[in-house]
Design goal:
By secondary structure, the protein is mainly α. The chain contains 3 helices and no strands. The longest helix is centred in the middle third of the chain and has 24 residues. The protein starts with 8 loop residues before the first helix and ends with a helix.
Length: 66
Amino acid sequence: MPTNLAIDDHLLEQALAIGGKTTKKATVTEALVEYIARRQRMKALEAFGTLSIDEKFDIKKDRKKR
């Protein structure tokens, strides 16, 4: 999907230098992949500790039922 974006030239130059990619497209693609992964990790961290645990559940007993 072709898209035209107005990206800050200074930021893109820095990203090219730091990331070691040879094209702007590869740099932006890698940045998006990293952005998505970071946001997914943050969502998982927010969910940490929100699950309720059944203190009576015994995994060993459950395994014997199989």
